[in-house]
Each structure stands twice: as structure tokens, then as C-alpha cells.
Amino acid sequence: MEEPADSGGGGAAQGPMAQVAEIRCPIAARPMRLLEWKVKPGSLVNVDSVLALCAPIPPEKESGSHPPEQPNRLSEKKLKSDRAGVVKELCCQIGQVISPGVVVVRVEECSHPIVMKGLLYTRTQTNTKQQALISTANVSMVHSVPELMVSSEQAEQLGREDQQRLHRNKKLVLMVDLDQTLIHTTEHHCQLMSNKGIFHFQLGRGEPMLHTRLRPHCKDFLEKIAKLYELHVFTFGSRLYAHTIAGKYTHQH
Fold it and tell me: FCP1 homology domain: which residues (predicted)?
């Protein structure tokens, strides 16, 4: 299970582009025993990065009169960051019982508008008002590059530009489900069927073999509908699955 951390007020400013914030144990949570740190001072974290693994303390154990027991790994909770930045200080010790509201980590916030795989990108700004709008990069904007994060202000600007582009092109966005709409994928391949048009693949070593075929008239449908709409394909499958299918049929057709 996952436990999003709460943030306290920011500490002293560390220059014009950084501020130290306190990340606390959630107020609504039960006291938890710190099992393992997943970060260290100097680690770069994003929104939803796992900071630590903890084990909730049962109500009858909260008095502290009982010796600590071996935690049940199935009941572990992930304490997550709610902001991006660099870890400055770990404020608790392994084995310590953390009460709700206690400061767990201090983070020097990142206020660059764009973050890509932990690298910070800055635009040169000449307008002081624009500079003041730059905030933490915590919004993923590109399906195929989830590591690319932009600030909420940057995301809003990109959204407006997308809207203007669609108006210029006189198109709407059409969301199309991948499975059972464009393709059919199964783990059970019938040996009596022709292999023509079937894509056989695995998503990794030890993973089951998958067999995929385009549904009837899929290519014609996509060619015609693409003239009227901007197409976006979604799936409840994994990102790797979607990219594998898209890569196969994009290059094929």
C-alpha cells in the first residue's frame, strides 16, 4: 500500500530558485515504524517518488510497552513525496516509530519548469513576471516519455497551444481503445490458424508469448478517421505492451 506524505511549511530560502520544504508523516495515518529508506541526502525525487518503507503500528502496540516485532512485509506502506526536489536531510532513524505529523524528510524544492530523467532544464526569461510563474515540474505531458515532467504553468500553456492547433486544423481529439477495437491479443495461439498477419512477441524473458492481429478493416478505418480527428490510442495494458504494438504496426504500415 502507498501512503502519500504531507508537506509542512517551507524553510529558509536557499537562493532564488530553491526552498527547503518539510515532508511529514500523513496526519490521517496510524503511527508507523520506519523499515527502510529508499532515498539518501542528495537524491533527486519527483512527485510520487518513494521515500521510505514503513509498517503501521497496530493499536495495541502504540503504547510502546511491547518489544518491536518482525514487521509483516505484506502490510508495508510506501511513504511518497508530494513534490520534486533534492533530499537535504533524513529526519528519522531506521526502526523509529513515526507519529502522524512528524517531519520525515527535508527537501530542497526544484523550481525548474522542465525536468527530464532528473536533469533540470531552464529557459532564459527576460520578463520578471514570467520568472515568478515558474514552479515545480510535476506534470507528465507525453505518453511515450513519462520521464519528461513540466510545471503546472508550463502544462497549461502547452494545453492552450494544443487547443489552438486543433482549432486551426478544425479537428477534435478521438480516443481509441487498443484492445478489442484496433487489435486482438491472446496468449492462446491456435496452431490450425494461418500465421499470416499475426505478430508473435514476448514483453520480457520468462513472460508468456503473445499473439496479436489487427482487427478486420482496421487499417482502412485509421486512414479515413485520421483525416477527421487527431487520434490518441489508450490501453489498460502496460506501457511496454502499448509501445511494442505501436512500434510494430507503425513501421509495418
Answer: 167-253
